[in-house]
Write a structure and sequence with these properties.
This protein has one domain: 3-Layer(aba) Sandwich (Undecaprenyl pyrophosphate synthetase). The chain is globular, with a radius of gyration of 18 Å. β3, α4 and β4 form a beta-alpha-beta unit. With 241 residues, the protein is α/β, with parallel strands linked by helices. Bound molecules: 3-methylbut-3-enyl trihydrogen diphosphate (IPE) (2 copies) and magnesium ion. One 3-methylbut-3-enyl trihydrogen diphosphate binds next to α1.
Amino acid sequence: MRETTKQTDGPDHVAIIMDGNGRWAQSRGRPRLFGHQAGGKRVREIVRACPELGIRYLTIFAFSTENWKRTQAEVSGLMMLFKRYIQKEAQALLEQGVCVRFIGDRDKLDPKLVEMMDALEKLTDQNDLVHLTIALNYGGRDEVARATKRLAQEVAAGRLDPDSVDETTLARFLDTCVLPDPDLVIRTSGEARISNFLLWQSAYAEYEFTPVLWPDFTADTFAEIVAKFSARDRRFGAVVG
Ligand code: IPE
Ligand code: IPE
Ligand code: MG
């Protein structure tokens, strides 16, 4: 059993690049989808761990705008697992006080999946204990491009003065407009790269790269990384002390 002391100076918003499902499965001689399935079970455990770690916002990278480059079998397998996750978890998420949102471009997703995403958002929108954001067909550059397009449309319609556009204005058009910036970004599987995740929002996030593959990422590993974050000195460009 982990200690249940609430971190007072811990991260409010943690974002996770859940990586390594394929390698986890392959090292067991199993198909990649088996790893994605195991990864889905970890999501459940990590979401449940948030309240006692004092984490109010959890954002997870489930499918990137670049992941369409994978085989058709893997992509359709992942889409099937997303549907299954929503179906199986909706009630538990509602009861646990989790408010679910999706970020990313929904236009290229199966309308049936989009329908399920919309329904889960609606079902949980009164919840406030943990805000779970699932990045699905999400890319940081794509998000900024889509935001810029909508901003330009507002200018063209005469509703927005171009001289007034600043960082806050652009942030209002991002998929994450209602979320605080992440304090901590974790990537599993030993890769030390961002892979197009929350490019704008992570300007001052702390990063943690762990060699653990996502299907092996337990609530205890999560708690250790969160505890380490609290010891860091965040300066935001200023000279402190
Ligand atoms: C992360 O695991 C899940 C997705 C990107 C959908 P990977 O599928 O990238 O696993 P590895 O990196 O190939 O091991
Ligand atoms: C990033 O992992 C995307 C998700 C975790 C959903 P990838 O496995 O797709 O990233 P690269 O290809 O190693 O950069
Ligand atoms: Mg990967």
